Amino acid sequence: MNVRKAVVLRMEGAAAIVKLDAQGGCGRCAESGGCGSDVLGQLFGPRCRTYQAEALHPFAAGSEVEVSVEARAPLIAALLAYGVPLIGLLLGASLGALFGGDAAAAGGAVAGLVLSAIVATAAVRRRGAQLRVRILETDQTGS
Description:
The protein is an alpha+beta fold. Helices cover 44% and strands 24% of the residues. It is built from three helices and five strands, in the order ββαββααβ. A five-stranded mixed barrel has the order 1-2-3-5-4.
Protein backbone atom coordinates (compact mmCIF):
# COMPACT_ATOMS: atom_id res chain seq x y z
CA MET A 1 0.00 0.00 0.00
CA ASN A 2 1.34 3.44 -0.94
CA VAL A 3 0.89 6.06 1.80
CA ARG A 4 1.48 9.81 1.41
CA LYS A 5 0.81 12.90 3.50
CA ALA A 6 -1.83 15.28 2.19
CA VAL A 7 -3.80 18.37 3.17
CA VAL A 8 -7.59 18.59 2.85
CA LEU A 9 -8.60 21.44 0.54
CA ARG A 10 -12.38 21.04 0.85
CA MET A 11 -15.17 18.53 1.25
CA GLU A 12 -17.48 17.53 -1.60
CA GLY A 13 -20.24 15.41 -0.16
CA ALA A 14 -18.71 12.30 1.41
CA ALA A 15 -15.36 12.84 -0.30
CA ALA A 16 -12.43 15.02 0.65
CA ILE A 17 -10.46 16.88 -2.00
CA VAL A 18 -6.83 16.52 -0.90
CA LYS A 19 -3.55 17.95 -2.16
CA LEU A 20 -0.45 15.77 -1.92
CA ASP A 21 2.97 16.93 -0.83
CA ALA A 22 5.25 17.84 -3.74
CA GLN A 23 7.44 14.75 -3.36
CA GLY A 24 8.08 12.92 -6.60
CA GLY A 25 9.45 9.51 -7.40
CA CYS A 26 10.47 7.36 -4.47
CA GLY A 27 11.69 10.24 -2.33
CA ARG A 28 15.39 9.46 -2.73
CA CYS A 29 16.01 12.02 -5.49
CA ALA A 30 17.51 14.50 -3.05
CA GLU A 31 19.63 11.85 -1.30
CA SER A 32 23.01 10.60 -2.44
CA GLY A 33 22.62 7.33 -4.30
CA GLY A 34 19.16 8.22 -5.57
CA CYS A 35 18.52 7.57 -9.25
CA GLY A 36 17.01 11.00 -9.97
CA SER A 37 14.28 9.52 -12.18
CA ASP A 38 11.81 12.20 -11.06
CA VAL A 39 13.80 14.68 -13.16
CA LEU A 40 12.40 12.92 -16.25
CA GLY A 41 8.87 13.28 -14.87
CA GLN A 42 9.38 17.00 -14.31
CA LEU A 43 10.31 17.47 -17.98
CA PHE A 44 6.74 16.69 -18.97
CA GLY A 45 5.20 19.26 -16.65
CA PRO A 46 3.66 19.13 -13.20
CA ARG A 47 1.61 16.08 -12.28
CA CYS A 48 -1.84 16.26 -10.83
CA ARG A 49 -1.42 16.47 -7.08
CA THR A 50 -5.05 17.02 -6.16
CA TYR A 51 -7.22 13.95 -5.64
CA GLN A 52 -10.63 12.96 -4.39
CA ALA A 53 -10.34 10.63 -1.38
CA GLU A 54 -12.93 8.60 0.47
CA ALA A 55 -13.64 10.20 3.84
CA LEU A 56 -15.43 8.42 6.67
CA HIS A 57 -16.31 11.75 8.29
CA PRO A 58 -16.01 15.44 7.36
CA PHE A 59 -12.68 17.26 7.64
CA ALA A 60 -11.93 20.93 8.00
CA ALA A 61 -10.00 22.60 5.21
CA GLY A 62 -6.31 22.52 6.10
CA SER A 63 -6.47 19.24 8.03
CA GLU A 64 -3.36 17.11 7.59
CA VAL A 65 -4.16 13.51 6.66
CA GLU A 66 -2.45 10.41 5.34
CA VAL A 67 -3.90 8.96 2.16
CA SER A 68 -3.33 5.52 0.74
CA VAL A 69 -3.87 3.65 -2.47
CA GLU A 70 -3.35 -0.06 -3.11
CA ALA A 71 0.15 -0.83 -4.39
CA ARG A 72 -1.17 -2.31 -7.64
CA ALA A 73 -3.68 0.47 -8.33
CA PRO A 74 -1.41 2.56 -10.60
CA LEU A 75 -0.57 -0.52 -12.69
CA ILE A 76 -4.21 -1.57 -12.94
CA ALA A 77 -5.28 1.95 -13.87
CA ALA A 78 -2.58 2.22 -16.55
CA LEU A 79 -3.51 -1.14 -18.04
CA LEU A 80 -7.19 -0.23 -18.13
CA ALA A 81 -6.54 3.23 -19.58
CA TYR A 82 -3.89 2.32 -22.14
CA GLY A 83 -3.38 -1.43 -22.45
CA VAL A 84 -6.95 -2.60 -22.96
CA PRO A 85 -7.77 0.03 -25.63
CA LEU A 86 -4.51 -0.64 -27.46
CA ILE A 87 -5.13 -4.38 -27.51
CA GLY A 88 -8.71 -3.81 -28.68
CA LEU A 89 -7.57 -1.46 -31.44
CA LEU A 90 -4.88 -3.84 -32.71
CA LEU A 91 -7.05 -6.93 -32.42
CA GLY A 92 -9.94 -5.23 -34.21
CA ALA A 93 -7.67 -3.97 -36.99
CA SER A 94 -6.10 -7.41 -37.40
CA LEU A 95 -9.45 -9.17 -37.61
CA GLY A 96 -10.75 -6.55 -40.03
CA ALA A 97 -7.68 -6.92 -42.26
CA LEU A 98 -8.02 -10.71 -42.13
CA PHE A 99 -11.59 -10.62 -43.45
CA GLY A 100 -11.33 -7.64 -45.79
CA GLY A 101 -9.20 -4.83 -47.08
CA ASP A 102 -8.08 -1.51 -45.67
CA ALA A 103 -11.61 -0.27 -45.02
CA ALA A 104 -12.42 -3.42 -43.04
CA ALA A 105 -9.20 -3.00 -41.05
CA ALA A 106 -10.11 0.60 -40.21
CA GLY A 107 -13.65 -0.40 -39.26
CA GLY A 108 -12.34 -3.28 -37.18
CA ALA A 109 -9.93 -0.92 -35.40
CA VAL A 110 -12.75 1.46 -34.51
CA ALA A 111 -15.01 -1.40 -33.41
CA GLY A 112 -12.20 -2.91 -31.32
CA LEU A 113 -11.50 0.44 -29.71
CA VAL A 114 -15.17 1.00 -28.82
CA LEU A 115 -15.55 -2.54 -27.48
CA SER A 116 -12.38 -2.22 -25.41
CA ALA A 117 -13.62 1.07 -23.96
CA ILE A 118 -16.79 -0.71 -22.83
CA VAL A 119 -14.72 -3.54 -21.32
CA ALA A 120 -12.40 -1.08 -19.52
CA THR A 121 -15.36 0.90 -18.15
CA ALA A 122 -16.96 -2.30 -16.84
CA ALA A 123 -13.66 -3.34 -15.25
CA VAL A 124 -13.34 0.04 -13.51
CA ARG A 125 -16.85 -0.33 -12.10
CA ARG A 126 -16.05 -3.85 -10.89
CA ARG A 127 -12.58 -3.07 -9.48
CA GLY A 128 -13.19 0.58 -8.61
CA ALA A 129 -12.77 0.01 -4.87
CA GLN A 130 -9.18 -1.12 -5.45
CA LEU A 131 -8.38 2.06 -7.38
CA ARG A 132 -9.72 4.59 -4.87
CA VAL A 133 -7.64 6.90 -2.72
CA ARG A 134 -8.52 6.53 0.97
CA ILE A 135 -7.77 8.63 4.05
CA LEU A 136 -5.97 6.61 6.73
CA GLU A 137 -5.09 8.93 9.61
CA THR A 138 -6.22 12.39 10.46
CA ASP A 139 -5.27 15.45 12.39
CA GLN A 140 -8.63 16.50 13.78
CA THR A 141 -7.32 19.88 14.93
CA GLY A 142 -7.39 21.23 11.37
CA SER A 143 -3.93 22.75 11.73
